[in-house]
Request: fold
Amino acid sequence: MEVKTEKAKEVVGEENFGIACVGLGYWGKNILRNLYELGFVKIACDINEDVINERKKQFPDIKYTKDLGDIISDKDIKAVVIATPASTHYELAKKFLLAGKDVLVEKPLALTLNEGEELIEIAEAQRRILMVGHILQYHPAVVKLKELISNGSLGKLQYIYSNRLNIGKLRVEENILWSFAPHDISVILDLVDEEPIWISCFGGAYISDGIYDVTLTYFEFKNGIRGHIFVSWLHPFKEQKLVVVGSKAMAVFDDLSKQKLFLYPHTIEWKYGKIPVAQKADYQVIPVEEAEPLKLELLHFVDCVKNQKRPKTDGYEGLRVLKFLELAEESLRRAYVEKNIVNQKRWIKEESRDYFVHKTAVIDDGVEIGK
Reply:
């Protein structure tokens, strides 16, 4: 195994710090790579033998297993990072917490609010660290964006929106809302530092019945800030942008751009006291630290484990994101039901009525119309 990097030594010194990586697939391989480079990973686990064999070629000198018991019984393993499908997060996190291991679980924390609450209760009872992989909170550009908001560079926040779009990995165990939106929900809740008072969501399922491929979620906060989150895995190109509109300036975090953070100091002037006119200004590139967010996230987790500190994205932060997701999901289901009811009523009227109604007309409930 590679010697710990200087940054890793700053966090744990020369201590032999053992971490297990569970799930070595689509995202787990990136976690494994970072843990390997940092010199923390001792054992890696996956149920797929082919995946294990592939990882052995890339990251030798560590133990690989298909048996979770090998991790649970190893007293040198202080913590576990879980990067398995979302449907397994609750059961695996619970198993490792009860075994006395600190846990970093990839988003979402669980698939229900009740499961998330139970994991927090177990972690507190066991005096264990529970952290959620909301990676954008550790992104240097997002950290800088929060500074711009805090120091007043954007003025009063007015509107926040994000686009997380791609034509890529389609899932059948979770919809696009639960797969893509948690990252942006986590960041927006942190930037606004409030919970929303209103959430509305709608979308469409086109590939698998009942699994939404596209969703658009609107929300509003008590302080008047509004916004939306647009997510899709049926999009012609990849886009990952977060836009924050303030009274003094606007900021754009573009994760696919080489230069990640931009400030647009546009202003609005009032002509003749009553006509608003936009005064456009050239954008400014905001310098940010060049560092891999995943590595920073993992270093934060290790620091929390070693010093038993509360993580920035702890279980409670994960629970706030779960609450947002459940309310959005409820709105999504309600919109689907209401649409069906409307369609059914319209069909009944069209079949039974013996009078003509123009398509622009509206008939109130209870109104009777003769021939």
Summary: The first strand starts at residue 18 and ends at 22. Confidence is low (pLDDT under 50) at residues 345-352. Residues 315-352 form the longest helix (38 residues).
